[in-house]
Amino acid sequence: MAEVIKTKVLIIGSGPAGYSAGVYASRAMLEPILIQGIEPGGQLTTTTEVENWPGDTEVQGPELMLRMEAHAKAMGCQIVHDMVTSLELSKRPFIATCDSGLSYEADAVILATGARAKWLGLDSEEYFKGFGVSACATCDGFFYREQEIVVVGGGNTAVEEALFLTNFASKVTLIHRRNELRAEKILQERLLNHPKIEPLWFNELKEVIGTDNPKGVEAVRVENVKTGKITEIPCKGVFIAIGHSPASELVIEQLDTHNGGYVKVQAGSTRTSIDGIFAAGDLTDHIYRQAITSAGMGCMAALDAEKFLAEQE
Known about the structure:
The chain is an alpha/beta fold. It folds into 2 domains: about 5-115 and about 245-310, FAD/NAD(P)-binding domain, CATH 3.50.50; about 120-240, FAD/NAD(P)-binding domain, CATH 3.50.50. The chain has 7 helices and 21 strands. It has helices spanning about 15-25, 60-75, 125, 135-140, 155-165, 185-190, 290-310, and strands at about 5-10, 35, 50, 60, 80, 85-90, 95-100, 105-110, 115, 135, 150, 170-175, 195-200, 205-210, 215-225, 230-235, 235-240, 245, 255-260, 260-265, 275-280. The strands form 6 sheets. Strands 1, 2, 5, 6, 7, 8 and 21 form a 7-stranded mixed beta sheet that branches. A 5-stranded parallel beta sheet has the order 10-17-11-12-13, covered by helices on one side. Strand 19 (about 255-260) and strand 20 (about 260-265) form a beta hairpin. Helix 5 (about 155-165) runs parallel beside helix 6. It is elongated. The two termini are about 30 Å apart.
């Protein structure tokens, strides 16, 4: 029979939300176990310079996550490199089964599995990720002051990012495969009237072009979906803004969700629709999606779990 490990608090996910929950749950003497998942450290491990983390003028994303992991360990959080494949939430204690075959029995669970940016799936897009290709304007827009950049998409995310990027860029080209946007009307109006933004209708991104040494973007190649005409657009940055997908596969049929799968929490807390299950970070936050807000929610989740367990006792 497979080994079952018991814990008061099981944390699933290892981004800023998960590690912060680990720090606070450890300080509350809850002896938490944190399961890192398939991508230890989360989305920040694919980011280079981070300039908006308080206390660090500049820090590398992977370095920041290693520091957060070390902090959680130092506080007493047990960190396991494994991946949860199933989660049984129908009764307490909750049961998480991992890829290794191990199972964990927990009185409370903090979900911090994050979200993933949607990508186009191009080889060149993958190659230049973190070197001119990004999915977060608020994270990386600062690096493109007085540069020409490209945004791909046509919904609220794309329009908001294009407008935000005008604070830095000399020109923003919005590439969209249709000739009308899906974004809210007021956002469309702002974009279409902005002197720095030029929409390129009926086009889709086919290739990101750049240099290898040093690695960086120089242009994009787009194709007109009606005529097949190929156009090359010079740019230093490419922002893919076609949305995010919350990593809620484990709980999508067990917890209340909204906005395309984000886990729903009670206002002002991290409590979900099941008592004893808490959600933090990008898994539940479809608005801000920042490392610092995720870390704050991780703190909240640990404090909510501590209060829940105390009430049970």
